[in-house]
Design a protein that fits this description.
The chain is built from twelve helices and eight strands. The strands form two sheets. A five-stranded mixed β-sheet has the order 6-5-4-7-8, sandwiched between helices. Strands 1-2-3 form a three-stranded antiparallel β-sheet, with no helix packed on it. A hairpin with an 8-residue loop joins strand 2 and strand 3. Helix 4 packs across helix 11 and helix 9 packs across helix 10.
């Protein structure tokens, strides 16, 4: 097959619906640029610096030039996104985004490395940048009945050698696990979760006050950190897990289901996750849960891929940041 015939086939291809189609489609740099530009600027290309919409396309350089005179008048489609300053082309980035969007239990950096022909270190950094785009930026409070719970993520001391268990207990002052708090809105079936520093009452209730509308019904277990929610304007229903797990509508089974999915991904695919990076892994699982296919909303892999691309703008994550050399505030 000649290059001209191959390019003609690519030009006439519809937007990809499967990973195989995505790899073929995004093998052509022009397709990558057009697909990302159309998704990022549906109303026409905009200059990331000044916002003008009449930039001139420089075909030989595969970039645009703004007609205003300023320092960054020339720009590519990657500027201002998670892809900015990456030496890798979109022909590797976009299939990587598709792979993590379509994987039910996540995808390891080693698999990305083998599939795309990059080093494991590069694949690891790529995945963290993609997870940054998967974070939910919504500030709206949940309004339906909400299940609230927390879980602990970390090593299992009972499976360690006694010496290592003693070293970890000494180093972490007895607290070896990270804490993740989650909230599930039963009406929208959407979940939010984040790493929290501890399970003190003020921390737990502050998250509820910031994330749940006043007057909503809140379901929790019997942990004392959730008491006094009635005094704060919530209809608080408690299930005592030492006696029962379900009492009519009073339960936390929905958020417990999310915890099982999260831990299956962490232990089965990623195996070992540092607490410093845990928030991005949690964000990945939250995105996957909130964009799952349902009877009322039959999403597919292409829909999830587009959803991630719609969030790549305005988010940057440098290697210095992801390794904790810049802007690191500690594990929690």
């Amino acid at each position: 097959m000649t290059n001209q015939v191959y390019c003609l086939i690519l030009k006439n291809m519809e937007a990809p619906k499967t990973l195989q189609e995505a790899i073929i489609y995004f093998a052509e740099a022009g397709n990558c640029i057009k697909y990302l530009a159309d998704n990022r600027w549906p109303n026409g290309v905009e200059c990331p610096t000044c916002g003008r919409k009449d930039a001139r396309w420089l075909a030989n350089q595969r970039k645009w030039q703004c007609k205003s005179v300023h320092a960054k008048r020339q720009f590519t489609v990657k500027v201002g996104t998670i892809f900015e300053d990456s030496p890798l082309g979109l022909g590797k980035w976009l299939p990587a985004v598709w792979m993590i969007a379509s994987a039910k239990n996540g995808v390891s950096s080693y698999e990305i490395s083998r599939s795309l022909g990059v080093t494991q270190k590069t694949a690891w950094f790529m995945l963290h940048r993609i997870r940054e785009a998967m974070k939910n930026g919504s500030m709206m409070k949940m309004g339906g009945p909400v299940e609230v719970d927390e879980t602990f993520v970390g090593p299992k001391p009972q499976k360690m050698h006694a010496d290592r268990r003693l070293r970890m207990q000494t180093a972490h002052k007895g607290n070896q696990k990270a804490i993740v708090m989650g909230m599930l809105d039963r009406e929208s079936r959407q979940v939010r979760a984040k790493v929290i520093p501890n399970v003190r009452r003020d921390v737990l209730q502050s998250e509820i006050l910031n994330g749940v509308e006043n007057g909503s019904t809140v379901y929790t277990d019997g942990y004392p950190g959730y008491d006094q929610l009635l005094l704060k304007g919530y209809l608080h229903q408690v299930i005592n897990h030492t006696q029962e797990y379900v009492r009519g509508q009073v339960h936390t089974q929905g958020i417990d289901n999310f915890w099982s999915l999260l831990k299956r991904t962490l232990t089965g695919t990623y195996v070992a996750v540092e607490p410093f990076h845990l928030d991005r892994y949690v964000a990945e699982q939250v995105f996957r849960f909130n964009n799952r296919a349902t009877k009322d909303n039959p999403l597919n892999d292409a829909d999830r891929f587009i959803a991630i691309l719609s969030q790549v703008s305005g988010r940057r994550l440098t290697y210095a940041e992801v390794t904790g050399k810049v802007g690191a505030a500690g594990p929690f």
